[in-house]
Write a structure and sequence with these properties.
The protein contains ten helices and twelve strands. By secondary structure, the chain is α+β, with helices and mostly antiparallel strands. A hairpin with a 4-residue loop joins strand 5 (163-167) and strand 6 (172-175). The relative contact order is 0.20. The structure holds adenosine-5'-triphosphate.
Length: 320
């Protein structure tokens, strides 16, 4: 690679996409955000960031590429300049790292873009961890998490992984107990939904119906106890997403996806975050594989995954 030079180092980090098993949104706040209560679950669909240092260059020398192992076509709408969250993440970390130098960041994209699965957030979390290692920044996980929150509400969870309750705008995290893997089928769409557009649709739907939502203070205890007990049928009854009607209002075909999933045997389905990815819950791994095959047979882009899985993690560290 042209960026490798004597003294260069390459750190590769994997970070998971997420689904929201439960997502409650309060009213629009004066700052333009919504307070939420979210149960995040990291699932086994991973982004990868490969960060290679460019010794002797300025920290502002940040370059970016998309790896050819990415899911074909997925990265089409992803900006390759300073708007990319990985560039923002490296820039932010460089500001607080005394030994920062230039870096080349290579993204392997597997999480659908604008899919409601926090793919960009996973990239940003992975970049923070990779550059922290490259530059020996010596930041604690907590300090990295603070930087992550500056980049976006879902970025701290990309670092933490597992299962977690997210309050505030989703960035105030507390790990939730989920001792065994749950099995899901993700139905991925061939289009994206903009998160601000979906929240806007939610506000319009609520205004039209006269709804007056409270600020959510906690995740439904039924969700937490079902996760603790790894009880898929109980969790199926508790899946909820306040954004789902808004996502469906912008993409009505999601209602068919949800209905088809249940018709083909899912315990239940829910739109993940702002969508359009739909997460279908299965009873166990075999059921998830069977459900994925049935959904694929019906023409859907379906993928069996499990969660919780780990958050951003270094998978290799090579000195050239
Ligand atoms: P969330 O659920 O956290 O709102 P999402 O999964 O719906 O996110 P992402 O794919 O994370 O959506 O981000 C979508 C937007 O962010 C797109 O408009 C894209 O252009 C921009 N973006 C910036 N950096 C990235 C990145 N590294 N990967 C994907 N999208 C990125």
């Amino acid at each position: 690679m042209s960026t490798s030079a004597a003294g260069a180092r390459t750190v590769r980090v994997k970070a998971p996409g997420k689904i929201n098993v439960s997502f409650r949104a309060g009213p629009l706040r004066p700052d333009g955000y919504h307070s939420v209560a979210s149960l995040y679950l990291a699932v086994s669909l991973y982004e990868e960031i490969t960060a290679t240092s460019k010794p002797g260059t300025a920290p502002s020398d940040i370059t970016l590429s998309i790896n050819s192992n990415s899911v074909p076509g997925l990265a089409a709408g992803v900006p390759l300049d300073g708007r990319n969250l990985v560039v923002k993440a490296a820039t932010l970390l460089a500001e607080v790292s005394e030994r920062a130098c230039g870096v080349h960041l290579d993204i392997t994209k597997r999480v659908p873009v604008s899919g409601g699965m926090g793919g960009g957030s996973a990239d940003a979390a992975a970049t923070l961890l990779a550059c922290d290692a490259l530059w020996n920044s010596g930041l604690s996980r907590e300090e990295l998490s603070h930087l992550a929150a500056e980049l976006g509400a879902d970025v701290p969870f990309g670092l933490l992984g597992g299962a977690a309750i997210g309050l505030g705008v989703g960035d105030r995290l507390n790990p939730a107990l989920a001792p065994a893997a749950l099995h899901w089928v993700l139905v991925q769409a061939d289009f994206g939904l903009s998160t601000p557009a979906v929240f806007g649709a939610l506000d319009r739907l609520r205004a039209a119906s006269g709804a007056d939502p409270a600020v959510p203070e906690a995740v439904d205890p039924a969700v937490l106890s079902a996760l603790r007990a790894s009880d898929a049928p109980a969790l199926a009854k508790a899946l909820v997403n306040d954004l789902q009607p808004a996502s469906i209002s912008l993409a009505p075909q999601l209602a068919d996806v949800l209905a088809d999933g249940v018709r083909l045997g899912a315990l239940a389905g829910v739109v993940s975050g702002s969508g359009p990815t739909v997460a279908m819950l299965a009873a166990d791994e075999d059921h998830a594989l069977e459900l994925a095959a049935r959904l694929a047979g019906a023409g859907y882009n379906a993928l069996a995954v499990h969660g919780p899985v780990h958050g951003a993690k270094i998978v290799s560290d090579i000195r050239h």
